[in-house]
Automatic annotation (TrEMBL):
One of its GO terms (cellular component) is plasma membrane. Catalyzes cross-linking of the peptidoglycan cell wall at the division septum. Residues 66-219 form the Penicillin-binding protein dimerisation domain. Belongs to the transpeptidase family. FtsI subfamily. The gene is ftsI. It catalyses: Preferential cleavage: (Ac)2-L-Lys-D-Ala-|-D-Ala. Also transpeptidation of peptidyl-alanyl moieties that are N-acyl substituents of D-alanine. SUPFAM superfamilies: beta-lactamase/transpeptidase-like, Penicillin binding protein dimerisation domain. It is found in: Cell inner membrane. Its main location: membrane. This is Peptidoglycan D,D-transpeptidase FtsI. It is a single-pass membrane protein. The keyword Signal does not apply. Keywords: Carboxypeptidase, Cell cycle, Cell division, Cell inner membrane, Cell membrane, Cell shape, Cell wall biogenesis/degradation, Hydrolase, Membrane, Peptidoglycan synthesis, Protease, Septation, Transferase, Transmembrane, Transmembrane helix. It comes from Serratia sp. (strain ATCC 39006).
């Protein structure tokens, strides 16, 4: 009995000891876990809280872009040429949308389809193309009124985003110069592209905290954006409209392939107007061919023909090959079997007569009396073969040959504008330099504040003399009489050149141009008019481009309120040989 009781007591003691040991072990484990948990909490909350904060922020913080509008482009007087108007982008969150049942035949979804003018099945296809994505555009540049209507539909997963669309008040009138932007507001053509960085601001950022329903509950931080710069051009919108209207009418009347005109302020080098026809509507590019978009004033090059003849006469006077009163033999002659002749038949002409009648024979004889390098140097000084550095993308630098050996035929034809290439803008720079009596000023497409001193590149008295001679071209007996402007003296030169085909050979297509300055007594404006490939029966510059020059220059002088300077009737300023010759309108 006693032995049995002893064993039972011993067994109870052992069991109690085992239970105590397990309990102690359990308590120790719990304690260790609590200590570890406290240490982990301390580590996460005190020592290294950034990770949890970051993960929490990823679930609740959102960065919202604060858009900035693209800078406005205006003319020299502040008239808007390109502005940004507020519009909306409609976008969807496919995951959120599908979590709420997706696009259905509900009347609200049909209302969205009607508002965007997109069939419901196409909307569904856009959303379901990537059902797990969080962003897809449904429509861009939506009218704010329609955007407000869509917002009131309160469709799940459908959101609005503020953006802007570029609007061009002058439309076709300034299209080639101003250019346009793409749907994201990046400059693609013209000034919009050339000055894209200047016109583009830096958007700001706003960091907010949202609850699980997407509502903003806290503004955490914000970063201010950088406002875009506005751009003031040298263009005068009134003159631009005038130039475009007259040019467009001339292209249609002459059934020409295209036309270009450039107007420059002689005293500052500012481009006051630059137009091309045909043009395009920058506010609606649908169906516009790429060929219609290029700015021909800076991209297209052509042989300047007779418009370089004043520079030949200047060079001859400077090198004392002739003097102001010289009379030249202008009978046709041959160079290695090639006849050099004029449209009219003249035995002899004064220097004024050479310009008035646009005598190829006269200027070629002058060129053959001097080294070829002399003409190359003069052409180069007036800017031929050099880019204008106007800042517009796509400008051609033209072509001015500088070869070591010249044949007599090359020297002769070089004097009446063959063997070199210019853009209309470069030719306008040449005549702006002539109009300033030999002072070269860089061209500018942005407004500049006078005075612009410039650099003298040719003796003033010689250039003044030749400008006076050029007045005869627009007087009775001259090839450019149709360019005359009532009440004003103008100094011009007309020209006609054959076009060069793709194979480098001349083809039976012509370019007619007229370049000049006015008023001749104190030139303020230089104008170049180019009519490309007219098909209405006439193709000479004096018949095709001269009337356009007169219409444009007359309008410019009157619009700018320039005092008339025409000499009284009977004043003997029109000293021309062969007065009996009628105006043939040819050159």
């Amino acid at each position: 009995m006693r032995v049995t009781r002893t064993r039972r007591l011993k067994r109870q003691e052992e069991h109690a000891s085992f239970v105590s040991w397990r309990f102690a072990l359990l308590c120790a484990g719990i304690l260790l876990c609590m200590v570890g948990l406290m240490l982990r909490i301390a580590y996460l909350q005190v020592i290294n809280p950034d990770q949890l904060v970051r993960e929490g922020d990823m679930r609740s913080l959102r960065v919202q872009e604060i858009p900035t509008s693209r800078g406005m482009i205006s003319d020299r007087s502040g008239r808007p040429l390109a502005v940004s108007v507020p519009v909306n982008a409609v976008w969807a969150d496919p995951k959120d949308l599908n979590d709420h049942g997706g696009i259905t035949q509900d009347t609200r979804w049909k209302a969205l389809s009607d508002a965007l003018d997109i069939p419901l099945d196409q909307l569904a296809a856009k959303v379901n193309a990537n059902p797990n994505s969080r962003f897809v555009y449904l429509a861009r540049q939506v009218n704010p009124t329609i955007g407000e209507y869509i917002h009131k539909l309160k469709l799940p997963g459908i959101n609005l985003r503020q953006e802007s669309r570029r609007y061009y008040p002058s439309g076709q009138v300034t299209a080639h110069l101003i250019g346009f932007t793409n749907i994201d507001g990046k400059g693609i053509e013209g000034v919009e592209k050339s000055f894209d960085r200047w016109l583009t601001g830096r958007p700001g950022e706003r960091t907010v905290r949202k609850d699980r329903f997407g509502r903003v509950i806290e503004d955490v931080s914000s970063v201010d954006g950088q406002a875009a710069h506005n751009l003031i051009l040298s263009i005068d919108e009134r003159l631009q409209a005038l130039v475009y209207r007259e040019l467009n009418n001339a292209v249609a009347f002459n059934k020409a392939e295209s036309g270009t005109a450039v107007l420059v302020d002689i005293n500052t080098g500012e481009v006051l107007a630059m137009a091309n026809s045909p043009s395009y509507n920058p506010n609606n590019l649908a169906g516009t061919p790429s060929s219609a978009i290029r700015n021909r004033a800076i991209t297209d090059i052509f042989e300047p023909g007779s418009t370089v003849k004043p520079m030949v006469v200047m060079t001859a006077l400077q090198r004392h090959i002739v003097n102001v009163d010289s009379v030249l033999n202008t009978l046709p002659y041959y160079i290695k079997g090639h006849e050099i002749r004029d449209v009219g038949h003249y035995k002899e002409l004064s220097l004024t007569g050479v310009l008035q009648k646009s005598s190829n024979v006269g200027v070629s004889r002058l060129a053959l009396a001097m080294p070829a390098s002399a003409l190359v140097d003069t052409y180069s000084r007036f800017g031929i073969g050099k880019p204008t550095n106007l800042g517009l993308v796509g400008e051609s630098r033209g072509l001015l040959p500088d070869r070591q050996r010249w044949s007599d035929l090359e020297r002769a034809t070089f004097a009446f504008g063959y063997g070199l290439m210019v853009t209309p803008l470069q030719l306008a720079r040449v005549y702006a330099t002539i109009g300033s009596f030999g002072i070269y000023r860089p061209l500018s497409i942005t407004k500049v504040d006078p005075p612009v001193p410039g650099e003298r590149i040719f003796p003033e008295q010689i250039v003044r003399t030749v400008v006076h001679m050029m007045e005869s071209v627009a007087l009775p007996g001259g090839g450019g009489v149709k360019a005359a402007v009532k009440g004003y003296r103008i100094a011009i030169k007309t020209g006609t050149a054959k076009k060069v085909g793709p194979d480098g050979k001349y083809i039976d297509k012509y370019i007619a141009y007229t370049a000049g300055v006015a008023p001749a007594s104190n030139p303020r404006f230089a104008l170049v008019v180019v009519i490309n490939d007219p098909h209405a029966g006439k193709y000479y510059g004096g018949a095709v481009s001269a009337p356009v020059f007169g219409a444009i220059m007359g309008g410019v002088l009157r619009t700018m309120n320039i005092e008339p300077d025409a000499l009284p009737v009977g004043d003997k300023n029109e000293f021309v040989i062969n007065r009996k010759e009628g105006s043939g309108g040819r050159s």
